[in-house]
Design a protein that fits this description.
Elements: H1 3-28, E1 32-38, H2 56-64, E2 66-72, H3 78-87, H4 91-94, H5 103-106, H6 113-118, E3 123-128, H7 168-173, E4 192-193, E5 195-196, H8 206-221, E6 229-235, E7 242-243, H9 246-249, E8 283-284, H10 295-325, E9 332-338, E10 343-344, E11 350-351, H11 357-360, E12 361-367, E13 376-383, H12 387-394, H13 412-416, E14 426-432, E15 435-441, E16 445-452, E17 461-466, H14 482-493
Parallel strand pairs: 1-6, 1-9, 2-13, 3-6, 4-8, 5-7
Antiparallel strand pairs: 2-12, 9-12, 10-11, 14-15, 15-16, 16-17
Helix pairs in contact: 2-10, 8-10
Length: about 500
């Protein structure tokens, strides 16, 4: 062999080894995870077609990734919904439907989403509202590499909002006086204001402080690029009270607010599904026991909800900008998730805690570099429990095995191709009035089966809504369409029997 041919052969071998080495390095490089969890956020966002909402940063994130148009919570209440995403388990699989019961009391060795990443060498941390802390529940320390950064959910700056006293909801969220012997119940405490709008800096409220903490932590984590991280970032707004700086209220004209159009319970619906008061009764000037609020109050509450979205969106934008400035964005998978929807007066219902569309339809956005295409959307159904196995798959981790039930499915094929269909419905549940309501949501219908949880002598009840012909859920047509109820019940029967309330 001539010298020139020998040298060429050596160069080719070295080049091949170099390519293999680079490929091996790329395979060993694990993506970071940023899970953004927003409290009480329904899809009232620009990217979802809301022309009133001012949400440029979430809209931009959706423009860089994939937006799910048909994503649903598994239960429309803060604590259990967070167990759904962080455990990958439906409430019906664990029996965890309410506050005051820690998931580790039921499944002590459960491996949460961040724990699954921690076991694979990730640094994990959380800030803001991630697990629900309050109402007798606490954070899960085993999920995080460092202590959780806790911030307030119920927060006031104006003394007139509280009368300088501890309010009911503050007590619930701080676990103050709750379930403590020989102390008055929380309902004997004064109610706090449902909103306030002082002329203050963003940092007067928790979401800005949480965003600042996230920015500081990203700067710290960026100094060790060989250590992948899983960061859970929880924003409180638009949860009540609608306490945000005045400038965010000033973004909107109160006369532009979209007022509720149908303020009655659906015709033919079970009486106990007619939700009134509950969380709203903890705040003034909301009247207790009134069926329909006056227009001024409705307009103020809806205004506060939109102002709160814009405030939260601004804080989220600060974090996104810093992620890019630090050049972490190209190796970070970002998920934006709303824990459940929110009623804004439809059916004369406010907040969540129902099986209706407004309480369960959620925003869900994935940005996975190298997987999702910028500005892509999908009509594929997705549920909160799907986030856990999907993130594990995207990061190249082992498929999660529990020991808790892993009810979600891997959405990665959809992230690659939004036209893919891997399931044709979503499943969710909510207990009310001594019944457990299990719902199947398809493209056209939602069927809800209400099963007595204690009194087995009571009959099973059904609701059926047709969203092509009745998008506002005005009539329960279960009796009119028994064949549809039967077909959707067959879908429901494919699921394991729901566990009773624990």
């Amino acid at each position: 062999m001539s010298n020139s041919k020998f040298i060429l052969s050596v160069l080719l071998i070295l080049g091949s080894l170099s390519i293999d080495y680079i490929s091996a390095q790329e395979e060993d490089s694990k993506p970071n995870i940023l899970l953004i969890m927003v409290d009480d956020l329904k899809p009232n966002l620009g990217t979802y077609g809301d022309t009133l909402a001012i949400s440029p940063n979430i809209d931009k994130l959706a423009g860089e990734g994939m937006r799910f148009n048909n994503a649903y919570s598994n239960q429309a209440v803060c604590g259990p919904s967070r167990y759904n995403i962080l455990m990958g388990s439906r409430s019906t699989s664990t029996g965890l439907y309410n506050f005051g019961k820690e998931f580790r009391d039921v499944i002590p060795n459960a491996v949460t989403l961040p724990q699954h990443f921690m076991k694979s060498g990730y640094h994990t941390e959380s800030m803001g509202k991630v697990f629900h802390i309050g109402h007798g529940n606490t954070n899960d320390e085993a999920s995080w590499s460092i202590p959780h950064f806790k911030e307030k959910v119920i927060e006031y700056v104006d003394p007139e909002s509280t009368g300088r006293q501890l309010t009911r909801e503050e007590a619930f969220f701080e676990n103050t006086r709750l379930y403590i012997e020989d102390t008055p119940p929380n309902d004997e405490l004064p109610r706090g204001a449902a909103w306030e709008s002082p002329d203050v800096l963003d940092e007067a409220y928790a979401d800005a402080r949480v965003a600042n903490h996230a920015i500081n932590r990203l700067r710290k984590l960026s100094k060790n690029p060989d250590q992948p991280f899983f960061m859970a970032l929880g924003f409180a707004r638009p949860h009540l009270p609608f306490s945000v700086p005045k400038k965010y209220w000033d973004l909107y004209d109160p006369m532009d607010m979209p007022m509720p159009e149908y303020e009655k319970a659906p015709e033919g619906s079970p009486a106990f599904t007619k939700k009134r008061d509950h969380e709203m009764s903890q705040f003034f000037p909301v009247p207790v026991g009134k069926e329909v609020y006056d227009d001024d109050l409705k307009r103020k509450l809806i205004h506060g909800y939109y102002a709160s979205i814009s405030y939260m969106d601004t804080q989220l934008g600060k974090v996104m900008d810093e992620l890019k400035r630090l050049e972490l964005d190209e190796n970070t998978i970002i998920v934006l998730w709303g824990d459940h929807g929110w009623h804004l007066g439809d059916h004369a219902i406010w907040t969540k805690h129902t099986n209706f569309e407004q309480a369960n339809h959620i925003p869900l956005i994935f940005k996975a570099p190298g997987v999702t295409k910028a500005g892509s959307t999908t009509d594929q159904f997705a549920e909160s429990v799907d986030v856990y196995p999907t993130l594990a798959s995207l990061a190249g981790l082992e498929k999660p095995k529990g020991p808790q039930p892993i009810d979600g499915i891997d959405l990665t094929p959809v992230l690659k191709d939004g036209s893919r269909e891997i399931k044709d419905h979503a499943y969710h549940a909510f207990p009310m009035g001594g019944y457990l309501g299990e719902a199947i949501r398809t493209e056209q219908y939602r069927m809800i089966r209400w099963t007595p949880m204690r009194d087995t002598e009571k009959e099973v009840l059904y609701e059926l809504y047709d969203y092509e012909n009745d998008p506002k859920e005005t009539i329960n047509i279960a009796e009119e369409k028994p064949n549809v109820v039967s077909e959707m019940t067959k879908i429901l029967e494919r699921y394991p029997k729901a566990k009773n309330r624990l």
